[in-house]
Write a structure and sequence with these properties.
232 residues; alpha+beta; 6 strands; transmembrane helix; LRAT; signal
Length: 232
């Protein structure tokens, strides 16, 4: 007999949602701060100013623009810029709580971090998206300058303004997100299924198990797919 595809799809949806906004589970006793890779963990000698860096996750990719001298500009959901302009506080590594609240309130920052903090231990691909844009690639210095001009607080949207939109605007002149398009298609497939109510319940239960019982973890997991479907 065939297995019910809805629970599997719901589990996949939850995983994709968390990865899309770069939620990274923290070890117990970490105090809410993710561990940082040791300085020099990555060989930056092969990176050039203006390069587009990709860090593949399980299902999604995080993007940034290399600025030189071990610095990467990248867009991260973050609630803190909505409450303070203190750069020293904002520049601290974004915790999961700050990140999730940033997604909910649609606030973010385009920040500059070390390659180690940006990549978070993942492997890095360089200019891998160039093959998709062919003759649209801007000059490396132009890409870096665009990224530097945008550093600071910004609005956040899973659909219209995420880390991929940021880098494609900087390097190719057009803000697009291929992985968001794929994510929306998955969401629509689940929502349109006649058992979508069950799928939503399973997503909510999975979020409680994975992230704990709290409105900021369970409600977005249920409502965000619906909003994505409406916006699509």
């Amino acid at each position: 007999t065939m297995k019910n595809p809805v629970p599997q799809a719901a589990s996949l949806l939850l995983e994709k949602l968390l990865l899309l906004v770069h939620v990274r589970p923290l070890p117990a006793g970490s105090g809410g701060e993710p561990p940082a890779a040791a300085p020099g963990y990555y060989d930056t000698s092969c990176f050039k100013r203006g390069d587009l860096l990709e860090v593949p996750r399980t299902l999604f990719i995080h993007f940034g623009i290399y600025l030189g001298e071990n610095r990467v500009a990248h867009l991260m959901p973050d609630i803190l810029p909505a409450f303070t302009g203190d750069r020293r506080q904002i520049q601290q590594v974004v915790t999961n709580k700050r990140l999730i609240l940033g997604v909910i309130t649609k606030t973010a920052s385009i920040r500059v971090d070390t390659v180690e903090d940006f990549a978070y231990g993942g492997s890095i691909l360089v200019n891998h998206m160039d093959r998709l844009f062919e003759d649209q690639v801007l000059g490396s210095e132009e890409a870096a300058r665009r990224a530097e001009k945008l550093v600071g607080a910004t609005a956040y949207s899973l659909l219209w303004n995420n880390c991929e939109h940021f880098v494609t605007y900087c390097r190719y002149g057009a803000p697009v997100s291929f992985q968001t398009d794929k994510f929306c298609e998955t969401v629509k497939m689940i929502i349109r299924d006649q058992r979508s109510v069950l799928a939503s319940v399973l997503v909510g239960l999975a979020s409680i198990v994975c992230l704990g019982l709290a409105p900021c973890t369970t409600l977005p997991t249920i409502f965000i797919p619906f909003f994505l479907w409406m916006a699509g």
